[in-house]
Amino acid sequence: MTGVSLQFPITPNTDSHLSAVNWDNLPFGKIFSDHMFVMEYADGAWQQGEILPFGPIAMHPAMSAIHYGQSIFEGMKAYRNNHNEVVLFRPELNARRFSESAARMCMPEIPEELFLAAVKQLVAQDAGWVTNKPGYALYIRPFMFATDEFVGIKPSDTYKFVIITSPVGAYYAEPVRVKIEEFYTRAAVGGVGRAKAAGNYGASLYPAKQAQQEGFHQLVWTDAKTHTFIEESGTMNIMFVINNTLITPSEDADTILRGTTKRTVLEVAASFGIPIEERPVTVAEIIEAAKNGTLQDVFGAGTAATIAPIAIIGYRDEKLTLPALETREISLKIKDFLDGLKSGALPDTQHWIQKVC
Ligand code: COI
User: Fold this and answer.
1) Ligand 1: which of 139, 218, 257, 303 to mutate, most ligand atoms within 8 Å of CB?
2) Using one digit for the tens of pLDDT, what is the confidence trace for 309-334?
3) CA–CA–CA angle 226, 311, 76 (5° rounding)
4) 320 C-alpha to center of ligand 1: Å?
5) Which ligand 1 atom sits closest to the C-alpha of 304?
6) CA-CA distance, 31 to 167, in Å (whole number)?
């Protein structure tokens, strides 16, 4: 990082389209703010990053990322709180996970300080795009891809790190219907499931499409070897409440993404005195609990989806309807607490909030 300034030069966008945004009809991830952050890696080092008007990026047809998939990303959100401040929630966890993904994919790591400075300066530049409308946020998408112009296969010597932002509302417009997948696999032990690698998401599309044709939104992924242990759901971590205990698959295997929302949910639940189990979770025990009435809640946890209640679990030929949303005390209480922290209504005693401007 020698010689790289954390005060990034800015080329302002002189053609803002902020005033054209329809905040009452905001499709997830389709509208982008006025600026983006761009930084190149070359000669073994990150070069000076800059903030530019949002726009297309030129690409060589042999660019290695599009041939071999050296490409990773993160998902974060900026919020406008009740004090009219723009804040980030635990962004250091995203910076760390980004470096872990980079290491697994043979890509250069970005120092946490540099990652956070870039995110904060970009969000500050487009602070006008951060609404205080409840349930809305500015979604932040940092990503890195290999840019060598070379069709041979090897780790690229050059990369681009880009951050774009997008004002968003809810990711799921309704409670989620998921299907337990017993044939296709998201991640195998020794693979890249723990990394936020672009290819993990590309590979999930075909199996998810099959489930969508049967009326589900997403799949519940199971372990690659036996398909008897639950891992994740769609793009989210998955959490269950059985007999008032919050249960989620443990992360010991390298097949599960280490979710920042999931980690936060577990920490908040622990602070409320809710019993927690992070352990292997079998499909059989969840189906049994759903049938005998002890399964009180199932929800997904992710940055985009936040805490997304799951309404129906499909298992083989059955569709199991889960308890009514208003009875799901634990996830509702945790969600209220997190909303309170982000809006500034509750004091940030955990120091999870970082102010941008
Ligand atoms: C996120 O929750 O930020 C994700 O990465 C999900 C994304 C695929 C929309």
Assistant:
1) 303
2) 999 999 999 999 999 999 999 999 99
3) 80
4) 26
5) 2
6) 7
Number of domains in the chain: 2
Q: Is 166 in the pocket of ligand 1 (CB under 6 A)?
A: no
Query: 147-157: per-residue pLDDT in tens?
Result: 999 999 999 99
Q: What is the mean pLDDT of residues 121-146?
A: 97
For ligand 1, is residue 208 a contact (CB within 6 Å)?
Answer: no
Q: Which of 128, 147, 168 is the endpoint of a domain? A: 168
Residue 352 placed within a domain: no
Give me ligand 1 centre to Cα 291, in Å.
31
What burial letters (b/e) apply to 144-175, b meaning 16+ CB within 10 Å? bbbbbebeeeeebebbbbbbbbbbbbebbeeb
**Residue 2: predicted pLDDT:** 61
**Is the distance from the beta carbon of residue 235 to the nearest atom of ligand 1 less than 6 Å?**
yes
Q: Is 234 left (phi over 0), alpha (psi -120 to 50) or beta?
A: left
Between CA 261 and CA 193 the distance in angstroms is 17
Q: Does residue 307 line the site of ligand 1, with CB under 6 A?
A: no
pLDDT at 1: 63
Write the pLDDT tens digit of every residue in 219-278.
999 999 999 999 999 999 999 999 999 999 998 879 999 999 999 999 999 999 999 999
Is 248 close to ligand 1, i.e. is its CB under 6 Å away? Answer: no
Domain that holds residue 96: 18-168
Q: Which of 144, 168, 192 is the last residue of a domain?
A: 168
Q: Is the shortest distance between the CB of 302 and ligand 1 below 6 Å? A: yes
